[in-house]
Amino acid sequence: DIQMTQSPSSLSASVGDRVTITCRASQGISNYLAWYQQKPGKVPKLLIYAASTLQSGVPSRFSGSGSGTDFTLTISSLQPEDVATYYCQHYNSAPQTFGQGTQVEIK
Amino acid sequence: EVQLVESGGGLVQPGGSLRLSCSASGFTFSSYAMHWVRQAPGKRLEYVSAINNNGGSTYNADSVRGRFTVSRDNSKNTLYLQMSSLRAEDTAVYYCVKARRIAVVRDAFDIWGQGTMVTVSS
After folding, report:
1. What does each C-alpha distance from B3 to A36, A45, A67 come to in angstroms?
2. CB A37 within 8 A of CB A44
3. Binary contact (A43, B109; C-beta < 8 A)
4. Of A34, A93, A94, which is closest to B108 when you measure between CB atoms?
5. How far is CA A11 from CA A19, A86, A89, A101, in A?
6. Taking Cα atoms as reference points, which of A62, A3, A98, A55 lies closest to residue B95?
7. What's the mean pLDDT in A56-76?
8. Contact: A36, B45; criterion CB under 8 Å
9. C-alpha distance from A25 to closest chain B C-alpha (Å)
10. In B, which residues are within 8 Å of A101 by CB distance?
């Protein structure tokens, strides 16, 4: 199975800050990577697929990059409504494993 | 509106069985692969099972293989997860999710149900 490792596990940043979360796959997955946002007590929501394509309706302050084994989710200007746990997931092969999550808080 | 609604969760004793259902609406259910994802309290998302659009191909994660069976009834727009030999570590919220693209199994998940809680305890 492909293992997905996210860093950091948690972060605290100020409103307006640029936030970067990284995700590393244990083997190459091309661009078969998705990012999800899960707000406290809510259902996960797809933010980005194919490593860098923004899902319809997602604010443009979210962006993704990477290919192969190393990927990044960036929030260009952190907003209070972005408080959530963010998960990466590969879909290169079965099982489509998730990272352990990165909890984002407002400082 | 595209919607997935799970049902069937509850409290079950270790070794018991439970069947989860997921009713789909707002899209052509028979065109899309469907998956089950679970999340234990305070834990990460865990991939559980997949089924292709016509039900002819399924996949179960190692942690549930031989105990869980995923199936679908396209005439009823419903996805199922039959769970047996349940263990305490199966306690989680179970989400029904839709693959983003038509007829593609390995894909991002664009629609999630609200989840149904399964608690395995004596």
Report:
1. 18, 13, 32
2. yes
3. no
4. A34
5. 9, 11, 19, 11
6. A98
7. 98
8. yes
9. 16
10. 44-45
Distance CA A39, CA A83 (A): 7
Q: Which residues of B touch A (CB under 8 A)?
A: 35, 44-47, 50, 59, 61-62, 95, 100, 106-110, 112-115
Residue B58: per-residue pLDDT: 97
Residues B110, B82: contact at Cβ < 8 Å? no
**Predicted local confidence at residue B18, as pLDDT:** 98
* Chain-chain contact of B59 with A101 (C-beta, under 8 angstroms): no
Q: How far is B15 from chain A (nearest CA, A)?
A: 25
Averaged in consecutive runs of 10 residues, what is the pLDDT profile of chain B (122 residues)?
97 98 98 98 96 96 97 98 98 98 94 98 96
Question: Is B108 close to A46, i.e. CB distance below 8 A?
Answer: yes
Smallest CA-to-CA distance from A11 within A83, A61, A63, A59 is with: A83
Question: Inter-chain contact B45–A91, Cβ cutoff 8 Å?
Answer: no
pLDDT tens column, A9-47: 999 999 999 999 999 999 999 999 999 999 999 999 999
